[in-house]
Specification:
heterodimer; A: 357 residues; alpha+beta; five-stranded mixed β-sheet; 21% strand; B: 342 residues; OB fold (Dihydrolipoamide Acetyltransferase, E2P); six-stranded antiparallel β-sheet; 22% helix
């Protein structure tokens, strides 16, 4: 389970209780009443912002959170592995004309770094964010194969993710969307040399080939994954929660999706993770009956306090959620994300529309 | 529109400030030259002409006559006085200000309270109303039980009682109007400052800061702290009628729930209206508008009307409203302007 943000929630028990009960209504009342449970916060996006990078993008949310991603590609010499069995295994040499690079990519060819202001490079939050982003990126295996040039050379992809503002809400979804847009607009110089020659590139930038090929005809090509944050409050599922909403979440799920290769609708999941909601660390509210300042009697021992708390029926007291996510809730979330016309499809098509328009 | 992604815009348009029709402190505004729109930055030489006097936000190096700006903001000329009004500033506490604060830490005999000022404010245990009447003596037991009154994260409304030399404020809650906040939502206008800045966005002093908003679902209390912190909550009617308790025993009637951190039963409709007001305040902030009672009431009514219209049209396409809170507020303000003009 990934750690939550280090900055603790600083809300009073009364506020937490109010937020939770409003989010648990049907339909949920979100902190921004103009938004429904499936609505994302509006954002502003642009791409090709960094002239020196192969691909770059910037997305700013309305609350001021802003992320910048640069993708830089370098040619690197692949280490020559000693082939013990000589050419014994290469019986299927003839098939390689179909696609030479399949299965030859390595995970190490993609390097990702995440910088969050206020956090050291080796703090848990940036490290986990980077590994989650990288994990979803490499999960499909198609990207790393595309980095293969020939037996001796490959592309090395550096993805630098920069959060420009303090992390107001859990920034994973924003960083992932920005990375998606940057990778979508990444171009690699066109290769002129053949086979195992030293790589020689076309110096005409117009001839560059996109890292993620555009849709050619009817065959849909794969797209970079995008991570969608979903949280559960009672029976409700809410997407793209803001900081205050996250503070009362029962459970938070990060679902990484990419488009399906078979059809143009729907999406498929490449990775899924639970995120420890900050609500687990909030102090519980003290009910009037246990508060000596409001005419109640303070419990004598902590065991006594626990018993009284368990028997508590009142709804106006904040109790931090316990336990994880229920199975049918997870299946409900994944269904809402991947179904045809689901959240993933909406996000991916909205990001694609930015690039076109 | 579950996901809306827009292309980037040019920097925000200048704030649409209401013309300063209020308080008497800004009488001199009429004499402002068009130059006030230009922005000066810290360290910028404003003038070396000795005829000018330096005002707020400027400084003169010793042995020189050059006036240098110390903040980034708009320059103001009042007769021969040059002052620079910062674009963003923290709240400067003044005695008597009504503020909303959040407890940051609990110490032996006092709390440290975040009131958006450069330094944390103090709330001594001796300046709160203890439950059980005003005449009760503060005892060592109360000191040990300090967390039962306020603990970390709790919101409270208080008044600035005194200022220390380093400009830290001491608060007090010795009135029935003040105390712990519950049954509602918190919102804030950041960087609005207060005082002289309150003309451009932010909460205005010397206006009504605590008021009750009538909604279809019920009454809602709004507390506008001078420091830009705002609390919106359900209006709680006093449980007993005033005739039951004598003036001297008023405290006892309230003390039951004075330090409660438990919410009362709130109807979903009221909850929705509270959230709506908080969303609209955020929208007002995003639009760079001033936040006061009049503005909140007008925008709230407009937003309710807008929603009713939308519902009667039967679909989102009926009424053209922008995206999110800012869009709604912009639409409402646009309509109000049209009404005012026609």
């Amino acid at each position: 389970m990934a750690p939550q943000q280090a900055a603790l929630v600083n809300l009073s028990p009364a506020e937490l209780s109010f937020l939770r009960s409003s989010l648990a209504q049907t339909p949920p009342i979100r902190l921004d009443v103009t938004k429904g449970p499936r609505d994302f916060r509006s954002m502003r996006a642009e791409y090709d912002v960094l002239p020196g990078a192969n691909g770059s993008a910037r997305i700013a949310l309305e609350d001021g959170t802003e992320a910048l991603v640069g993708v830089k590609a370098e040619v690197e010499r692949s280490p020559q592995r000693p082939s013990l069995g000589a050419h014994g295994e290469d019986v299927d040499m003839g098939d390689e004309d179909v696609d030479e690079s399949t299965g030859k990519g390595q995970n190490g060819w993609v390097e990702m770094s995440v910088e969050v202001p206020g956090f050291r490079e080796d703090d848990s939050l940036p490290v986990f964010l980077a590994s989650m982003l990288k994990e979803s990126l490499l999960a499909s295996g198609e990207l790393k194969d595309r980095l293969y040039i020939n037996a001796r050379f490959h592309w090395k992809l550096y993805v630098d993710v920069l959060l420009l503002s303090p992390a107001l809400s859990y920034p994973l979804a924003l960083l992932s969307m920005t990375t998606h847009l940057a990778l979508l607009t990444t171009d690699l110089p066109a290769l002129k040399s053949e086979k195992d020659e030293d790589p020689l590139f076309d110096d005409d930038w117009d001839a560059a080939v996109p890292l993620y090929p555009k849709t050619a005809g009817k065959t849909t090509t794969d797209k970079p994954p995008v991570i969608i944050l979903a949280m559960a409050v009672g029976p409700n599922i809410i997407f793209d929660p803001c900081k205050e909403e996250l503070a009362v979440a029962d459970a938070v799920l990060a679902v990484a999706c990419t488009n399906t290769s078979s059809s143009s609708t729907g999406a498929r999941i490449v990775s899924i993770r639970t995120i420890d909601p900050p609500s687990h660390l909030t102090p519980p509210g003290i009910p009037n009956s246990m508060n000596s300042a409001t005419g109640g009697t303070a419990p004598t021992s902590s065991a006594d306090a626990l018993t009284q708390r368990e028997l508590l029926a009142s709804s106006g007291v904040w109790t931090p959620p316990r336990g994880g996510m229920k199975r049918n809730l997870i299946s409900q979330v994944t269904k809402m994300v991947v179904e045809s016309g689901g959240i993933a499809e909406e996000v991916i098509s909205a990001l694609a529309a930015i690039e076109v328009g | 529109m579950p996901v809306s992604i827009l292309p980037p815009t040019a920097p925000l348009p200048p704030r649409r400030d209401a013309t300063s029709d209020d308080s008497d402190v800004d009488m001199s505004d009429d004499e402002l030259t068009p130059q006030t729109k230009s922005i000066v930055t810290p360290g910028e030489h404003i003038t070396s002409d000795p005829q000018w006097m330096r005002g707020h936000g400027t400084y003169v190096p010793s042995g020189e006559t050059t006036i240098i700006s110390t903040v980034a903001g708009h320059m103001h000329k009042t007769n021969k006085l040059l002052s620079v009004q910062p674009l963003r500033a923290r709240y400067q506490p003044e005695i008597g200000d009504l503020v909303v604060g959040r407890i940051v830490s609990v110490q032996a005999k006092k709390w440290s309270v975040d009131i958006a000022a450069p330094m944390l404010a103090n709330l001594p245990l001796s300046s709160i109303n203890l439950p059980g009447g005003i005449l009760r003596r503060r005892t060592a037991v109360d000191e040990l039980n300090i967390r039962t009154f306020f603990s970390e994260g709790d919101l409270l409304v208080a008044e600035v009682q005194s200022l220390h030399q380093d400009n830290t404020a001491s608060l007090h809650t010795r009135s029935l109007k003040y105390g712990k906040l519950r049954n509602g939502l918190f919102a804030s206008l950041s960087g609005a400052g207060g005082g002289i800045l309150s003309r451009r966005g932010g909460v205005v002093r010397s206006r009504r800061q605590v008021f009750t908003l009538n909604t279809a679902a019920g009454e809602i209390d709004v507390v506008l702290g001078v420091n830009g912190y705002i609390f919106i909550s359900k209006h709680i009617k006093p449980a007993q009628s005033a005739t039951d308790i004598s003036i001297t025993r008023l405290e006892e009637g309230v003390s039951e729930t004075l330090y409660s951190s438990q919410n009362d039963e709130i109807e979903p409709a009221v909850m929705r209206e509270i959230t709506r007001v908080s969303t609209l305040i955020k929208g007002l902030v995003a639009c760079g508008m001033r936040v006061d009672e009049d503005m909140i009431v007008r925008v709230y009514d407009g937003a309710v009307e807008l929603e009713a219209e939308e519902r009667s049209m039967g679909g989102a396409n009926g009424v053209d409203k922008g995206i999110g809170a800012k869009g709604v507020v912009e639409t409402v303000l646009g309509r109000l302007e049209v009404e005012a003009g026609g």
